[in-house]
Structures are given as C-alpha cells and as structure tokens.
C-alpha cells in the first residue's frame, strides 16, 4: 500500500506504510524534518527513496537513502527499527509493468477548457499556480505557510496570507514566515493592550487585528482543523526567546475541549508549561467542564486539579521557568512548521 504525497515534492514521491523501511539503504544523514530528507533525495539524481526515522535528539530525523530502480510501489519492505519509521519512494525511479488488453474506442466528446483561477497560468493541459494556491485550477488556498514555502516562496520574507486548513469552513488570515520550511503563526500576542481573556464563543471563533500589525488568535476551531491535517512542530516563543520546541503538537476537537497532546519537548530558555497531569483541556467562561475557569478566572488549558499556566489573560501571564518556578511572559508567538511531507486529507 502507498500514499500519494502532496505539495511540490509530493508529485514525485509515494509514502509507504509506517513501520516498514527499505533494507537497501546505502547512506544515512541527519535532517531537521522529514521534508528535509525528501528534499535531499529529490536533489540527488541517484537517490530512489529515503527511509525516515525520528533521530535521537528532538527536532532531528535520520534520512537513509537508497539507489537503484524499484519494481513497483513499496516493494521489498522489511520491519523498521521503530514503528514510526517509514519509506518514501521516488516515482521516477519505479519500473511499472503493463498488460495488453482489448479495448473499444468511442468518439471523444468536446470538453470545457481548463480555466486557471487566482492568477494561475495554463501550461499545456495543467495550471501553474501562484505559491498561495493549490488545486487543478488553482481554486484552493494553500493549507498552511509550509505549503506556500514548498510551492516556491522561499525568500525568507514575511507576509499576511489566507490559508484554508483541511476541513475548515472558510479561509483564515495568518502571518507567514518563509524560513525554516515556512512557519504559520496561529497566535500572536505582543503586548497586554489586547485582552485575550474572552468568553468561549469569542475564543472559539478567533480574535485580533491584522497579523502583520497587532495581536491576533485564529480561534480554537482553527487550531483543531490546522493540526489535524498533518504533523506539526510548535515553536513556543515567549518573551522573544525561541526554541521551545514541541514535536507533533495537536489540538483535539471541541468535544474534547480542544485537548492538547504532543510527542516530545525540547527546552529553550524556559520550561514546559504544558507538562501537567493530563488531560490538558481548555476552559473559559461559557465552557468550563472542569471548573477551572471558575476557580482561576482565566481562560486557557488546564491539567488535572486545575494545574497549568493559562495563556489567555488581560495582561502578563506566568509560565514555567524550567526550575520549579515561574517567569512573567509579556509576549507570545505560537509558530507551526509542518513535519510530515503529506497531508491527511
């Protein structure tokens, strides 16, 4: 079984099942993400595929490259060293066999010419889309800033961009940073002027100003749609200190109170404020299933016994300093970079 990948490199690769790798790997290097591994293979003429496994350090992946032609999709696989490892195979290095069959022909009917939308240009029988759009006719917004990056926006600039995560009812406006694979900023709080301690209905829908100017939050529903479509790394940037990295960070649906989960945390200056007894669920005025909003008076994610550090306040908030104490935070950015080379839609 194979899964087609999306994006610029996805057109050239198929992803095989988790827990299986190709034993013919001839060389191995480290990459910052699974997309790094795929891009390195794409740039190497002899590379026919790559085994991708989590590395020993947070934010690191092992990329094991293979050479030679394949005799079909995902053939000759063997059990991987870890269940989360998998193999990604280049389509142009695969030999396929065909059988001859008797067919009947009919007179072709006229078809409507493909009309490229949103600034796309017709190139033969397909549309070449601007980096902001995807789809056969460029009719859809990119799903995240990483996809815009994969589609050629790799100049290190920043801009406000409409994206539409898989399943989202409408596009959302976010700030994109086109470096390190394309970061999507879903929460930006640069001063205590804006009061983020709002009721549940407001926080569910989203609040704030222009992403390039002021404070904004895309909303709880958008967090769920966004992190459900692929695997993401969260860079939790507090007080302008980066590198508080969470691997495979997700938010659950409303029925779970937007419960937080993640695989691994690597510390920067501060500690892991989400490291409390699970479940880590959201409470606010109008949605207080655990009574934590009534007890604390602040909207945010709380663990068992209302432990944790709520981030939706009307001023500075406390966060773990990594040494059994707290630090006052007066600015926060939640930046997401896609780790997986594919989307789950």
UniProtKB/TrEMBL annotation:
Which biological process annotations from GO are given for this protein? regulation of immune response
Annotated Fibrinogen C-terminal domain ranges read 136-306
Q: Which InterPro entries match?
A: Fibrinogen-like_C, Fibrinogen_a/b/g_C_1, Fibrinogen_a/b/g_C_dom, Fibrinogen_C-term_domain
Q: Which Pfam families match?
A: Fibrinogen_C
| GO cellular component terms listed in the entry, alphabetical order | extracellular space
State the PANTHER family in the record: FIBRINOGEN-LIKE PROTEIN 1, FIBRINOGEN/TENASCIN/ANGIOPOEITIN
What name does UniProt use for this protein? Fibrinogen C-terminal domain-containing protein
């Amino acid at each position: 079984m194979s899964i087609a990948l999306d994006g610029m490199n996805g057109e050239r690769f198929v992803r095989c099942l988790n827990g299986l790798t190709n034993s013919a790997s001839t060389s191995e290097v480290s990459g910052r993400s699974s997309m790094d591994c795929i891009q390195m293979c794409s740039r190497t003429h002899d590379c026919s595929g790559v085994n991708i496994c989590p590395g020993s350090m947070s934010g690191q992946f092992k990329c094991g490259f293979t050479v030679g032609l394949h005799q079909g999709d995902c053939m000759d696989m063997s059990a991987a060293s870890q269940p989360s490892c998998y193999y990604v195979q280049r389509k142009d290095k695969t030999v396929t066999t065909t059988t001859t069959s008797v067919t009947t022909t009919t007179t072709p009917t006229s078809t409507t010419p493909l009309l490229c939308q949103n600034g796309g240009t017709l190139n033969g029988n397909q549309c070449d889309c601007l980096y902001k759009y995807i789809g056969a006719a460029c009719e859809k917004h990119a799903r995240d800033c990483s996809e815009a990056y994969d589609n050629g926006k790799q100049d290190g600039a920043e801009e406000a961009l409409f994206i539409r995560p898989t399943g989202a009812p409408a596009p959302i406006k976010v700030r994109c940073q086109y470096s390190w694979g394309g970061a999507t900023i879903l929460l930006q709080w640069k001063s205590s002027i804006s009061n983020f301690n709002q009721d549940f209905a407001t926080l569910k829908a989203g609040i704030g100003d222009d992403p390039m100017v002021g404070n904004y939050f895309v909303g709880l529903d958008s967090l769920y749609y966004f992190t459900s479509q692929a695997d993401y790394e969260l860079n939790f940037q507090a007080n302008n200190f980066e590198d508080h990295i969470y691997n495979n960070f997700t938010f659950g649906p409303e029925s779970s109170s937007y419960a937080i989960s993640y695989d691994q945390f690597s510390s920067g200056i501060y500690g892991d404020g989400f490291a409390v007894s699970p479940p880590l669920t959201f409470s606010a005025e109008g949605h207080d299933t655990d009574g934590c909003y009534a007890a604390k008076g602040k909207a945010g994610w709380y663990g068992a016994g209302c432990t944790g550090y709520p981030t939706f306040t009307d001023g500075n908030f406390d966060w773990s300093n990594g040494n059994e104490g707290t630090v006052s935070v007066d600015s926060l950015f939640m930046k997401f970079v896609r780790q997986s080379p594919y989307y789950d839609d």
